[in-house]
Amino acid sequence: MQAETASHSATVPGAASAAEADQFLTFMLDGEEYGVDILRVQEIKGWESATEIPNTPPYIRGVINLRGTIVPVIDLRRRFAMEAIEYTNTTVIIVLRIRAADGEKTMGFIVDAVSDVYNVTSEQMKPAPEFGGQVRTDYVKGLATVDGKMVILLDIDQLVSSDVVFSDTTH
């Protein structure tokens, strides 16, 4: 399935040009818009069932075979402790390249729907809010206001590396 998205410039008068902006692929989760660096996107696929792996957390839906490569698939709704819903025809897997301590990996992330592509300048990006030691926001790269709405920009490497399941551990 190919995502048809239009690139919108989210620049404001006096801001840096679009050439100095980073592009983010945005997607929907529970009515909120999130974004990931578009340069990390390898593919966008329609939902297909995954082969479940025993003894994994509920947010790991299993693995898919992507042209001979076994790709772990994470349901971002479940990862963010949102209510699980039935997958629909807008549910997609965004296949991303992740940079980990042991090299680059390919992982799939299930989202409600792909939204758009935005150019976001550093001036438009605000840091993630601090909630204190009990709430982790280290995987939020920042917040940007685009076309009058707030977009949560994710640091997908940090999200995966902060997960105990994917950290390197010595047995």
Write the layout of secondary structure elements.
Layout lengths: L6 E3 L12 E8 L2 E6 L3 E6 L13 E7 L2 E7 H4 L12 E9 L2 E9 L1 E8 L4 E2 L13 E7 L2 E6 L1 H6 L10
Parallel strand pairs: 1-9, 3-12, 6-8
Antiparallel strand pairs: 2-3, 2-9, 4-7, 5-6, 7-8, 10-11, 11-12
Index terms:
single chain, 171 residues, mainly beta, OB fold (Dihydrolipoamide Acetyltransferase, E2P), seven-stranded mixed beta sheet, five-stranded mixed beta sheet, globular
Instruction: List the domain count as a whole number.
Output: 1
CATH superfamily: CheA-289, Domain 4
Indicate the overall shape: globular
Share of residues in strands: over 45%
Tell me about the biggest sheet? 7 strands, mixed
What is the helix content? under 10%
Question: Architecture, according to CATH?
Answer: Beta Barrel
Report, as a whole number of angstroms, the end-to-end distance: 40 Å
Label the structural class. mainly beta
Rounded to the nearest angstrom, the radius of gyration is 16 Å
Low-confidence stretches: 1-16, 166-171
Quote the average pLDDT. 83
Per CATH, the class reads Mainly Beta
Strand order of the largest sheet: 1-9-2-3-12-11-10
With helices defined by DSSP (H or I, 4 residues minimum), what is the helix count? Answer: 2
CATH fold annotation: OB fold (Dihydrolipoamide Acetyltransferase, E2P)
Question: Which sequence of SSEs, written as H and E, runs from N to C?
Answer: EEEEEEHEEEEEEH
* Total beta strands: 12
